[in-house]
Amino acid sequence: MRHVISILVENKVGILARITGLISGRGFNIDSLAVGETENPAFSRITIVVRGDDAILEQVRKQIGKIIDVVKVIDFTTEEFIERDLMLLKVNSPLGKRGEIIEIVTIFRGKIVDVGQKDLVIEIAGTEDKLEAMLSLLRPYGIKELVRTGSIAIARGTK
Predict the structure, then answer these.
(1) Do 151 and 84 contact (CB within 8 A), yes or no?
(2) Which CDD domains does the protein's record reference (predicted)?
(3) Three-state secondary-structure class, residue 140
(4) pLDDT digits (tens, 9 = 90+) for 66-89
């Protein structure tokens, strides 16, 4: 099962290494990892996506919660949440095809962020499925370069 885990930590050196070490030490591969400061610069939020057995991941979640610099751990598996990824890609834009590419980008609510003589750089944010759908439509034009962030997530509503 896919788990999106959000970890609020004190913004200190080494905390990311301890958390990822704990997860990999239990035999889980991290599918996605994103880290950044929160609204309070004293804290960072780590968002990790892993796949695995629910019971074992519950144990891992509890062990992460015991790390001194960890403030809060949320497994969004049973929560209502909003999740987004960001992707930048450079695609060939052959003569006469640029309009088609721009139309695809517009449909997916992406942005053209750079225009070259022979290529376009596109930015898109959304769910993993949305990014994959647009990518599959742009592949026939030729993807020159691609970079993606890890997933970030936030709970819906207030608690």
Answers:
(1) yes
(2) ACT_AHAS (cd04878)
(3) helix
(4) 999 999 999 998 889 999 999 999
Note whether 37 and 46 are within 8 A (CB).
Answer: no
Separation in Å, CA 17 to CA 2, 22, 149: 22, 8, 18
Prediction pTM value: 0.84
Closest CA to 153 of 89, 91, 90, 73: 73
pLDDT digits (tens, 9 = 90+) for 117-159: 999 999 999 999 999 999 999 999 999 999 999 999 999 987 6
Diameter of the chain by CA atoms? 58
| Residue 117 CB partners (closer than 8 Å, separation 6+) | none
2-79, what's its fold? Answer: Alpha-Beta Plaits (3.30.70)
- DSSP letter for each residue of 34-55: EEEE-SSTTEEEEEEEEE--HH
Q: Do domains 2-79 and 82-155 have the same CATH topology?
A: yes
User: Locate tokens 């499925």: which residue?
Assistant: 129
Continuous segment of H or E residues that includes residue 143? strand 143-148
In the numeric block, the tokens 């695809």 are attached to 104
Residues in the chain: 159
